[in-house]
Structures are given as structure tokens and as C-alpha cells.
């Protein structure tokens, strides 16, 4: 059987929302995926297709009327291409943090700041996961896909994918048209720690520690920081950061700063000013508060949580209440990072 019908998506979303997919199919190879796509085209030509890895960035607001595809392709290969560089070829269903671990263990560097991020390799290439001043897109060389309409193999170079803060062409004009099968990363054979970002800079303010810093230790520190701030999906349902950090113009920021002199901020390379949405939400009094069975995590205000049995609509209602309060107080519209289905 190529697919199952009326399948619960509870194991496929870290928010722990109960929703069902009309059809669900898992594939372990590109050939298997092609066969599924061609059969779906014949038997359910007008129905939508949604690719789901761990569902760590999704919010199901209703049952899904089309087919959910899940990659069980999780092989990994690498090739040293020079003294300095190694290409890593990771299939889309591989768990992201396992990829980071394998790379650190084998001595291929760049991804270590992205330790302990839930999700799969395929989703990371859509979402451009980022943390502690590093984004996956910086290291992505090419992304291999099958076109949903034809089942044909297509490869996109990273320039075509226009990686930006939590964004790529897969979230825009390529959305819903391709299934990612493999991501190729260009990594370094030399470890260059990147520890300037807030929480990491604080951790490593002692220079002696930096001189002896190993990639394994950096990975451990990041894992510890994340575990301290973010809920474990196996214990509390969430989608990590629910909102993106807003970027405003320098003029707009100057006005806001007059009213709120303590506002934390970072200047971006493009000239805008990024403000932590967590701070805005906390200032509105939402940190640790709940609305029905949905809540704001008590250790990180950017994270919305499911306190048990929350529906997607309850999470949406909470997010709308927060967005309204942030807009009323600061005049800033914050946008969800999580994708609503
Ligand atoms: N802050 C608050 N209240 C809070 C938490 C944070 O006021 O409850 C303020 C503090 O000023 C803090 C600042 O926000 O210095 C930044 O906080 P943090 O370093 O925790 O990072 P973030 O901006 O809230 C982003 C990413 C995270 C990533 C961290 C670390 C986004 C949307 N989120 O969060 O990514 O782990 O930086 O790099 O950019 C994710 O995408 O799921 C995710 C967890």
C-alpha cells in the first residue's frame, strides 16, 4: 500500500496537536517517492501535498484534507574536496541534531552552533534554521528535490534559494511544488568558534576558556543553554520560537527607544534594527500566562506551549491576543515563525 488513510498527525507535530491527514505516505528512497507522487497525481490529482519532518515548526489548525508526505530517507555521506573543505550529503529525513553530532564527531565544522534544534535536515533547508549567530543556509551548497507535478529530479543551488532570516525560496515561490530529498553542505575541516552572540558571549567571556574550546565542548554548552530555556518537545508541546524577531528601520527604532530606553536590540547588516520579540511579549505581561490550554513558556516568552489537549485554534487565539498587545504597546506587528496549516 502506497499510503494510509485518515492518519493521526499527533506523532508528526511537536506542538502535540491532534489533527488527521486524509492520506499519509512515508518513503525511504527517491524512487519510492516518485512512485507515490505519480500515483497521487493519477488518483487524487487536485489534492494538496504537505511535507512534514518532525513537525517542529508547524501548527495544525484543522485536519489536513490532502496527503502528508514523510521522509524516512536518512543516509549520510561525505567527501573531502580539499584540505579545508568537506562536502556532506545528508538525506532529508535525517534528524537535524544527529547530523550536527556526526559532523562534529568526524571533524566537519560550521553547524555546531545549531546543536539541539529539533527537526529534520529537509525542514532545516526550507526554514533556514538559525541560532547563536549561525544559519544553516550559510553552509548549504545545493538542495536536491523531486518536482511534485512531474516526479522529476531537480537541484537548486543555494543562490537560487535566497536564504535569509528564517526564510528561503521554498517558503515563497517554490512552496508546495517540490519535495526535498537531500541537502548538500559545504563544511570546514578547521574549527573556528563563533561565540559572539549574546548568551554564548556571556558564557565565554573568560578568554582562557575560548583558547581551549573544542567543538564538542561548544556543542555541549549550546545544548545546555537551549535545554535551560526551551521546552523539550517530548515533555511540553511547542514549536520552538513561535514568532520571528521583528526588524524595524533605524528611524522607527529611535522613536521606540525614546519611549523604552531599555529595549534590547541588534543592528542588522542590511541597516535595520532587530528587536527580540521575547522582550516585547514579556513587557506586555504575557510571559508564563495562559489562555485556555495554550500558554507562553515561563522561561522564554517567544515560545508558545500546549499545556495539554490544546487545539490549534486555541494556540492561534493566544498568538492573536499577544500580537494585538504588542502592536498596541509598541506599534510593531510581530509575525509567526510557525507555519499554520
Ligand atoms: N528576552 C526577553 N524575555 C525572554 C527571553 C528573551 O526579554 O523571555 C530577550 C532578552 O533581551 C534576550 C533576547 O530576548 O537577550 C534574546 O533572547 P534569546 O537569546 O533567547 O534569543 P531569541 O531572539 O528569543 C532567537 C531564535 C531562537 C534561537 C535563539 C538563540 C528566532 C525567532 N529565534 O531567539 O531560535 O535559539 O535566538 O540564537 O530568531 C527557533 O527558531 O525555534 C529558536 C529557538
Structural write-up:
There is one protein chain. This protein has 341 residues and is an alpha+beta fold. The chain has 10 helices and 20 strands. It has helices at residues 30-43, 96-106, 121-127, 158-161, 198-203, 207-211, 215-229, 250-259, 277-283, 312-330; strands at residues 4-8, 20-27, 49-51, 58-59, 64-71, 76-80, 85-91, 130-131, 134-135, 140-147, 153-157, 178-188, 237-241, 247-248, 266-267, 273-274, 290-291, 294-296, 303-306, 339-340. The strands form 6 sheets. A 5-stranded antiparallel β-sheet has the order 6-7-12-10-11. The structure holds uridine-diphosphate-2(N-acetylglucosaminyl) butyric acid. Uridine-diphosphate-2(N-acetylglucosaminyl) butyric acid binds next to α5, β13 and α9.
Gist of the model:
The chain is an alpha+beta fold. The chain contains ten helices and 20 strands. The relative contact order is 0.13.
Topology:
Elements: E1 4-8, E2 20-27, H1 30-43, E3 49-51, E4 58-59, E5 64-71, E6 76-80, E7 85-91, H2 96-106, H3 121-127, E8 130-131, E9 134-135, E10 140-147, E11 153-157, H4 158-161, E12 178-188, H5 198-203, H6 207-211, H7 215-229, E13 237-241, E14 247-248, H8 250-259, E15 266-267, E16 273-274, H9 277-283, E17 290-291, E18 294-296, E19 303-306, H10 312-330, E20 339-340
Parallel strand pairs: 2-5, 3-5, 4-20
Antiparallel strand pairs: 1-2, 6-7, 7-12, 8-9, 10-11, 10-12, 13-19, 14-16, 15-16, 17-18, 18-19
Bound molecules: uridine-diphosphate-2(N-acetylglucosaminyl) butyric acid.
Amino acid at each position: 500500500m502506497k499510503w494510509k488513510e485518515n492518519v493521526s498527525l499527533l506523532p508528526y507535530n511537536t506542538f502535540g496537536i491532534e489533527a488527521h491527514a486524509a492520506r499519509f505516505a512515508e518513503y525511504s528512497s527517491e524512487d519510492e517517492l516518485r512512485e507515490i507522487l505519480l500515483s497521487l497525481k493519477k488518483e487524487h490529482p487536485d489534492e494538496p501535498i504537505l511535507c512534514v519532518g518532525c513537525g517542529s515548526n508547524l501548527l495544525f489548525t484543522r485536519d489536513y484534507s490532502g496527503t502528508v508526505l514523510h521522509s524516512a530517507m536518512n543516509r549520510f555521506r561525505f567527501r573531502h574536496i580539499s584540505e579545508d573543505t568537506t562536502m556532506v550529503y545528508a538525506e532529508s529525513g535525517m534528524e537535524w541534531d544527529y547530523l550536527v553530532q556526526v559532523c562534529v564527531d568526524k571533524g566537519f565544522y560550521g553547524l555546531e552552533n545549531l546543536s539541539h534544534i529539533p527537526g529534520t535536515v529537509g525542514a532545516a533547508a526550507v526554514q533556514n534554521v538559525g541560532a547563536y549567530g549561525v544559519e544553516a543556509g550559510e553552509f548549504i551548497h545545493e538542495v536536491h528535490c523531486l518536482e511534485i507535478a512531474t516526479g522529476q529530479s531537480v537541484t537548486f543551488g543555494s543562490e537560487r534559494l535566497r536564504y535569509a532570516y528564517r526564510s528561503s525560496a521554498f517558503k515563497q515561490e517554490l512552496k508546495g511544488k517540490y519535495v526535498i530529498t537531500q541537502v548538500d553542505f559545504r563544511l570546514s575541516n578547521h574549527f573556528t568558534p563563533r561565540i559572539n552572540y549574546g548568551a554564548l558571549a556571556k558564557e565565554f567571556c573568560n578568554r582562557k576558556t575560548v583558547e581551549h574550546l573544542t567543538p564538542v565542548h561548544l556543542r555541549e554548552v549550546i545544548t545546555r543553554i537551549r535545554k535551560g530555556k526551551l521546552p523539550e518537545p517530548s515533555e511540553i508541546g511547542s514549536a520552538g520560537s513561535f514568532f520571528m524577531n521583528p526588524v524595524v528601520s533605524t528611524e522607527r527604532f529611535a522613536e521606540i527607544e525614546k519611549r523604552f530606553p531599555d529595549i534590547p536590540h541588534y543592528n542588522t547588516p542590511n541597516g535595520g534594527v532587530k528587536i527580540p520579540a521575547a522582550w516585547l511579549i514579556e513587557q506586555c505581561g504575557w510571559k508564563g500566562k495562559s489562555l485556555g490550554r495554550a500558554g507562553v513558556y515561563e522561561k522564554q516568552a517567544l515560545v508558545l506551549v500546549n499545556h495539554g489537549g490544546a487545539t490549534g485554534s486555541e494556540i492561534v487565539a493566544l498568538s492573536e491576543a499577544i500580537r494585538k498587545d504588542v502592536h498596541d504597546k509598541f506599534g510593531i506587528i510581530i509575525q509567526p515563525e510557525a507555519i499554520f496549516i
